Amino acid sequence: MAKNSKAQGVARVPEESRAKALEAVMAKIDKDYGKGAIMRLGDKETVKTEVISTGAIALDAALGIGGLPRGRVIEIYGPESSGKTTVALHAVANVQKAGGIAAFIDAEHALDPVYAAKLGVDTDALLVSQPDTGEQALEIMDMLVGSGAVDIVVVDSVAALVPRAEIDGDMGILMWACRRV
Predict the structure, then answer these.
(1) What is the pLDDT of residues 119-171, one digit of tens each?
(2) Which residue numbers delimit the RecA family profile domain (predicted)?
(3) Domain 80-164 class?
(4) CA distances, 167 to each of 15, 18, 135, 147 (Å)
(5) How far is Cα 54 from Cα 92, in angstroms, rounded to an integer?
(6) pLDDT tens for each residue of 47-89
(7) What are the domain boundaries of the chain?
(8) Fewer CB atoms inside 10 Å of the end CB: C or N, the chain?
(9) Model pTM?
């Protein structure tokens, strides 16, 4: 094999220079994106991920870590009326039972407090927002997450996050064209 052969348009570094090139690129990634942006998996002891139970033992097991990973963005995807909100409300109830604070951004304006209570949600303690626009919902979510005081934020649903411009009817030529079709 030639030392500087090209594989798919990328020059291969000679074998004796590879370790040095790899360390240089890893240092640049750390500098540009922060320490820990890239690492060798074997260099660090694996940290057990904190989880929030979904309330369904089989689903928690299927997720592989025992529930929903805490501190991450999770999207529950499925057809209409498939139980997405129910799963989210069970997670909210489990957070509250553990002494945590939960927020529910009800973009659909469809949260049923009676149903939520039947699932174990402490509706008196639940923080609820029914935003007028998608931007407002995301700003509220950002503030809640940024506070560090909330343990779970549910946005129900992403499909209902309608941009302000669409609500105001100010989409210009695109809206005009859509109406013509």
Answers:
(1) 999 999 999 999 989 999 999 999 999 999 999 999 998 888 888 877 776 55
(2) 48-181
(3) alpha beta
(4) 59, 55, 11, 29
(5) 9
(6) 678 999 998 999 999 999 999 999 889 999 999 999 999 999 9
(7) 6-43, 80-164
(8) C
(9) 0.69
